[in-house]
Design brief:
single chain; about 270 residues; alpha+beta; 7-stranded antiparallel sheet; two-stranded antiparallel ribbon; globular
Amino acid sequence: MKNQYLQHILVAFLIVFSAAFLTSCGSSEKVVKDPVDNYTRDLGKYKTYSVILHDMDLEENTFSSDVHKHQYKFILPAKDTTGGKIVRDSLSGWVTVSKETFNKNLDNMGMELLSKSEDGKVSKIPSPPGYNNYVGNQRYGSWQTNSSGNSFWAFYGQYAFMSSMFGMMNNRPIYQSSYRDYNQNYRGSKPYYGTTSSTGQRAYGSGSAHSQSMNSKSRFKSNVSSKVSRSSSGSYTRSSGSSSSSRSSRSTGSSSRSRSSSGGGK
């Protein structure tokens, strides 16, 4: 009788413990909010801004949940001591994101995930960096014509650093035809990855030459792309041939690198 009583106590304890454990695990998943939603609130004081997915990393764990990470680049307006308007960029540290957020952005390395335009409109639709606020804006540059008759975007001298900031260096200009296609068919409605080459490579997004030029030391290629595969439903899962662990990423701080420019002119 006594043994039965102890068994009932033990079973009850295990049930309560299991319920508490599952509740804890479930709630921990819910609190991992998409950082983009937080940035929409935190950057509200700026008239314009852009948030670019700079890098991604995946830490695989055998006995615990995998850790999914993002690193973001912020493009923000600022004023120097003389009152002249400049634009600066800075990097976040590594930010833990949910598996859902990680999976839905696997195509978006180097893409702008969040932006606010001068008219106050906020967009969370992935687009090439610079397209929403700076390319096509005569405050920052103008359309020029090359020797082949193609119109391309050129920043004014004081904003020439934006060419590097947005990955336009190394013979990767932004053509007006591409920008027009974005404006007419994609802006505010669906992601835009530019034209697709004969080999199937997109102009923008993960794996593109543009993305690699923006972050040549990205962890994405070595730590992520080989460990995930797209299923028939379009979602991503861990590759069957991937290793059980990967090197970890230590946070470098909330703003580990910044760059600004105020010299020059049109």
